[in-house]
Amino acid sequence: MSRRPAGGYSRGMVIELLGLLDDRTAALDAALTEALADLGLDEAAEVRRISDPAALVARSVWRSPGLRVDGKVVCRGRVPTTDEVRGYLDEARAVDRLSPAPAAEK
Asked: Which CATH number, 1.10.3720.10, 3.40.50.2300, 3.40.50.720, 3.40.30.10, labels domain 11-98?
């Protein structure tokens, strides 16, 4: 039987915070940090902060800041509220719950 880590997420959630080093990206970072803490995912999620302009474009973010959750761009070109970020993370958890849990290693 497999066990889900903290936050009920069966695999490591990968979040990419995409943005230039400016106030807007800092505001998104603060909203993300608060949302992760509210949902108890601050230990279960891997947050990658990416500021290279070429890397942003490669991830389909043409206007900073942007946010990707498990490879899906959920927001770009604006700073979402903490409630919006919480919704993006909840949606990713709901999708994960529909997926089969990974098999236990022997």
From this structure: 3.40.30.10
